[in-house]
Amino acid sequence: MNANLPVDKIRPLQSVARFDYETDVLVCGYGGAGAAAALEAALAGAQVLVLERASAGGGATAMSSCEMYLGGSGGTALQKATGFEDSTENMAAYLREALGPLGDDERIRCYAEGAAAHFDWAESLGVPYKRAAFLERTVVPLTDESLLFTGNEKSHPFNRVAAPVPRGHVPSREGDEGGQLFMNAIMARVSEAGAEVLADTRLLALLRDEQGAICGAVAKRENREICIRAHRGVVLTTGGFVMNQEMTRQYLPEINQYAVPYGSSNDIGDGIVLGLAAGGQVINMDQAFLSFPLYPPAKLTYGVLLNARGERYINEDAYLARLAWYSCQQPGQKFYLLVQEEDYAASDYLERAPVVATGDTIAEVAAEAPFPAGKLEQTVSYFNQYAAQGEDPLFHKAAEWLKPLSKPPYALVEYSANEMRAVIVPGSAGPLMFTLGGLKTRTTGEVLDVSDRPIPGLYAAGRATAGLPRSGKGYASGMSVGDATFFGRRAGQAVAARSI
Ligand SMILES: Cc1cc2nc3c(=O)[nH]c(=O)nc-3n(C[C@H](O)[C@H](O)[C@H](O)COP(=O)(O)OP(=O)(O)OC[C@H]3O[C@@H](n4cnc5c(N)ncnc54)[C@H](O)[C@@H]3O)c2cc1C
């Protein structure tokens, strides 16, 4: 794959002798964010042209389950129909806790206020959502329910600041095809709205006028450069940069050594690089989603996760992204699950994780385990003492997942990051990663320069930006597609309304 863009990434408008296309709005990248931006701009009456490097639209959004993290406003229509209430304050409180100091308060507020209506919008596109919830601990329901918990809502410390409510909204279809269902529906609406799409066309450079506004682009199509004039502006929706080794080495040097890139092959950061060249600011570039899908089966949650010192380091009922983040903070990225026979099963997602020690007593397991002498016995004895009372003073694992490890035999399973990488099963094992950093934008999608001033005519959304999800350890599934489509729509509305 050629990751290099030309040297002259920003070209003067005057350098173009003839335009191959003229449009009001140029959208670059036809995944979730791009489709949402194109649709809103076209519905607002703008002439819209979309460029897509691949042979068809979809991007990582089509590969995804299309879980969208939605709630607030008393509850989405789906939450309400399944008996859940969710105030905007409750959702915002959860998001603030999840994103911590990296979170953007204005964006959180904007999203929490609009997320329930965003669900209505997604459904209005023709995406099917069944009024049914799947409430077991899982990654994605393989049956046809549409609502599930996709974050840390029920676990510490989140259950102390916000009432737990399921917010993962996933298109209804048996299997895991939500992303394709969503993209098929929205691409049909984009085409009905009159937007033109040029596939097999790679954005190469941006055009800037004498006043400093972005006013078009140069792209490569059928092996030649084409020039496009965009009178109202350009929206960058080219996705993240997880497939660009140079960038992941630069911005995520540690994670890059053990995590497996997860995304579309065109996630090489073209929009981010061009936005930077236009004077844009990038933020949050050192943050990534990581995945440790230990469960399902949910009963593995009764076990205890241990690092190479034989110490617990997290409440095991945390969400898979948080499990991954904390696990990868452990020395050597080595981590183990100690589980008793009645709760043991192979993880659905992490195949071939090796059992490294077994025993009818904890001492027998300890004799085979790679921990300092006496440590496993001490850790388990302390855990058992409190688990018997439904307590976990160290990490506050919820009482529903607490029981003493007292029914032998026991097994110690190794899930070290490098082991996972070595045994990766395509599309299933971890730790997988995608990037959470990119161009800094306003909630309208306007790209900001290093002085936080908007660059006229330049907009962005989705993983080309630092959007709503900014932290791997607080990530909830659905935050990325939810963010990309929600703020993609806002960028489309804003660019269409730009006065020229
Ligand atoms: C298997 C999988 C499952 C996932 N499941 C979920 C989930 O359920 N919920 C969730 O929130 N997140 C999920 N994610 C993450 C999520 O899918 C992405 O982060 C999100 O869809 C990104 O949307 P986007 O519009 O920014 O980018 P994309 O959907 O990737 O769209 C970007 C588009 O831009 C195109 N492009 C790139 N460069 C150029 C260029 N120079 N010129 C023209 N076109 C270009 C690409 O080909 C692509 O079509 C998942 C990711 C994967 C890989």
Automatic annotation (TrEMBL):
UniProt GO MF annotations? oxidoreductase activity
GO BP annotations listed? steroid metabolic process
In the UniProt record, the signal sequence range is none
Q: So which cofactors does this thing need?
A: FAD
Under the heading SUPFAM superfamilies, the entry gives: FAD/NAD(P)-binding domain (SSF51905), Succinate dehydrogenase/fumarate reductase flavoprotein, catalytic domain (SSF56425)
Annotated membrane-spanning segments are none
Which controlled-vocabulary keywords does the entry list? FAD, Flavoprotein, Oxidoreductase
Q: Which PANTHER family match?
A: 3-OXOSTEROID 1-DEHYDROGENASE (PTHR43400:SF10), FUMARATE REDUCTASE (PTHR43400)
Q: What protein does this entry describe?
A: FAD-dependent oxidoreductase
